[in-house]
Amino acid sequence: MLYKRNEYFRYTFGEPCDATFRLIKNATATSEMEMSKKGNCKIIDISPNGLRIYTQFQISIDQLKQVEIQFVLDESPIQIIGEFVWTKRKNDAFEYGIRLMGDHESEKLITEELKARRHKEVEKKK
Question: Could you give the domains of the chain?
Answer without folding.
Answer: 11-125 (2.40.10.220)
